[in-house]
Amino acid sequence: MNGLIVAERDWLCQIFVRAAICRYTASMQNLLDELNERQAQAVRATHGPVLVIAGAGSGKTKTLTHRIAYLVTEKGVKPHQILAVTFTNKAADEMRKRAATLLGANPNQWRIWQGFGTGPALGTFHAICARILRQEAGRVGFKREFAIYAADEQKSAVKKVMYNEGVSPKDVNPSAILNIISRAKNELLTPKQFATQTDGPFEETAAALYEHYQEYLKENQAMDFDDLLFNTVALFKKHPDVLKSYQERWPYLMIDEYQDTNQSQYEWARLLAGTTKNIFVVGDDWQGIYSWRGANIRNILEFEKDYKGAQTILLEQNYRSTAPIVALGNAIISGNATRMKKKLWTDRAEGHTPEVWQVANESREAEKVLEIICELENNRHPDRAYSQAEGSRESSSGAGDVDPSTSRVRSAQGDGGGEEITYDYAAEGGGSGILDQIMKGFKAGKKKYRSGDMRLQTSKIIPFDLGTKKITWNNYVALYRTNAQSRVLEEAMLKYGVPYRLVGGIRFYDRKEVKDTIAYLKFLINPNDVLALERIINEPSRGIGDKTLGRIYTQSREEKKDIMTCVLENEEIEGLAQNRFELFKEFMDVFSRAREKLAEMTVADAIDFLLSRAGYSDALKALGNDVVDKLENVAELKSVAKKFASLKGSQGIEAFLEDVALVSDQDTFDPTKGDALTLMTLHSAKGLEFNTVFLVGMEEGLLPHANSIIDPQQLEEERRLCYVGITRARDRLFMLFARQRTIYGSVSITTPSRFIAELGDEHVEFHEDGMA
User: Fold this and answer.
1) Does position 393 have pLDDT exceeding 90, yes or no?
2) 275 in catalytic set
3) Which of 169, 195, 220 is the last residue of a domain?
4) Which domain, by its residues, includes 298?
């Protein structure tokens, strides 16, 4: 049977390749003509180890996608023989769409939800590994439907293990234990191996908990993020035949952002590259900023040592930024001793000199950001006069407010006694007239504005009167080193009525009703998942407590059955009150009935069935003021599930849950949805670009961070982080530092960042703000 499937796949691939060659060979040279000389060189490098050092804004995604098209159309490679690995789902989706467009294919047919098909395998390390492990689940001792535990579930699991082992969270921080476990897994150390390398009592405790944590995960048929790579590497090493099958499947391996790989990812890639070492990696050592999560910069710096005879290609032309910004990036990174030599350049010779501003304190820093935006907008629209300081804008044209008929606002009663305004972005094409509508609400005494991750509190607003024109807030981003810095910036946005999006705030998938719904789905396809069950057993309340659950868990373990099967096959459980047992059995019956119909259900169907039969939907409707938001969030989750509509039954739910579990902040960030000023950390900004960038908090102790100053390697990473911030800017760059800053409730006199001192007058203009 497997032979027939492979034969059919190869037959379809031959048809696809012939069609692609006929359609695109004549135009492939034209496509190569779109590339610069170095990019084209990289595209044509199709065999053996290749290292592409791609500077910021140098078109690495274009290079990667053109190489996929070149392999198929020029070299006759079957699309399914190509594996391209990224670090975010957003990057994988972008690569998939671009490559499919070049080859005239449907990008949706290249997704890996149903396994690895006729198209290139494009995905994150974790997504690719999850697919491999589901296909080879029996070999690693798991069922195909194993759960993937997110960060909060991992923390719950380790807390349970600590409780069982008599370790108090008051004495030992569960997050610290998880960090140590994660580090061990990233270094491919089993619990027993790690136990032989511990340093002191704390790590000894962590080693013991690591072993019990893994046992708990196995019992729940669950893996955490690190397990996906750890278990795949272990699978490849233990089963050479499995490794060989994937080496033969993917003779062309491509990896993006190679500088961010950790030890497990490095080993995974080394194993897949095999003896042919046909590995093509793209990265930039100047942007290596993730050592805190296990990334090892040596992986890219020593690629040529690891893969003898490797070809190295430098992409040095920057297509993003103006010449002054590119020069500033080159200048700041030159302070690092450990780096590969290159010099970025750009054809965008004209541009404004980056500016450095000294301000009195963090509050004035936030105001200065808005003040500069107003000045930039005045220069862009001289007929309109913005004034941040007075909270208004004068108009020489005499234009009045926008006609209410041009925008729509839905109002719903919110908490706090005010009325909440949610702008209808979908209907209005991305935020036209947001502030005009907010100001109308403000004048009418409405208190709150909210939409997704965008927020605005109007009770303290000093409003901009924007008339018929508006500031395009999407053009602007404020970047900072630590999450704590966002508070003052948020307060300024609220005070002056500026719509903003906070990246890294409460994510959509972290909202209670969303997590509840996901837990219902998790337990449906994996009745061993105790954490999922404990989340939903009293959502809505059923009066089932820990003692009842404990007795049922004991019974299921004794019978070696999953919880649902154990309960449904028993008429009673010894030591458990019959009324409690019947309540629990009734709840399990909801899942049993759902499983009977599962083969014909989409993910959205399953959500509707479970929430309705379990009484969750009715419970949400009874919440009063919160009902609209919570119902909308569940509806939005169902909208997300629509892209899995072609997959019925457990396969669809499994793919949906996997997609949700592996989503990152960058995956959910969409700068085109609404119009708002973006607030985000420097780490979150990696891979993004904005017209105008504000780097705030350019002070010793913040950037570079206090924890990094005494370690030369960490200090170099802080400098790389600063470089990443600088190179996010297309047109304008402003760096700000305060003379004093309130930190943890105490006012401290600050020192400008050493990175500012390294810049020199030839690269920046220095300004001192006169406002106290």
Assistant:
1) no
2) no
3) 220
4) 2-139+229-317
Q: Which of 199, 264, 277 is nearest to 233 (CA)?
A: 264
What is the torsion angle, in degrees rounded to the nearest 10, for the CA atoms of residue 176, residue 180, residue 183 and residue 185?
-120
Question: Which of 231, 233, 179 has its CA nearest to residue 202?
Answer: 179
- Do 731 and 707 lie in one domain? The reply is yes
How far apart are the C-alpha atoms of 616 and 622, rounded to whole Å?
Answer: 10
Return d(Cα 424, Cα 421) in angstroms, integer.
Answer: 10
Catalytic annotation on 305?
A: no
Claim to verify: residue 234 and residue 208 sit in the same structural domain: no
pTM of the model: 0.82
User: Six-digit token pair at 68?
Assistant: 């996929």
Residues 133 and 82 placed together within one structural domain of the fold: yes
Catalytic residue among 719, 728, 732, 754: 728
The residues pairing with 451 across neighbouring beta strands, listed in sequence order, are: 454
C-alpha span between 324 and 346 (Å, rounded): 10
Q: Which amino acid is at 464?
A: F
Q: Would you call 287 a catalytic residue per the annotation?
A: yes
User: What rounded mean pLDDT belongs to the chain?
Assistant: 84
266 close to 296: Cβ distance less than 8 angstroms: yes
pLDDT class for 28, splitting at 50, 70, 90?
A: low
**450 belongs to the catalytic site:** no
Beta bridge partners of 345: 317
Catalytic residue among 145, 153, 227, 257: 257
Give tens-digit pLDDT for 721-747.
Answer: 999 999 999 999 999 999 999 876 778
The answer to whether residue 741 is domain-embedded is yes
CA angle, 517 then 521 then 525, to 5°: 170
Question: Count of CB atoms within 10 A of residue 174's CB?
Answer: 19
Examine the domain organization and report whether 97 and 52 are in the same domain.
Answer: yes
Whether 33 shows a pLDDT value over 90: the answer reads no
Q: Is 555 a catalytic residue?
A: no
> For this structure, is 60 an active site residue?
yes
pLDDT at residue 14 greater than cutoff 70: no
What gap in Å lies between CA 284 and CA 320, rounded to an integer? 16
Task: List pLDDT tens digits, range 627-682.
Answer: 778 888 899 899 888 888 888 888 899 989 988 888 876 666 777 777 899 999 99
Residue 647, both tokens: 């997959």
Residue type, 306: D
**DSSP annotation string for 27-76:** HHHHHHHTS-HHHHHHHH--SS-EEEEE-TTS-HHHHHHHHHHHHHHTT-
How far, in Å, CA of 719 to CA of 722, rounded? 5
CB count within 10 Å of CB 399 equals 13
Active-site annotation holder among 38, 39, 60, 362: 60
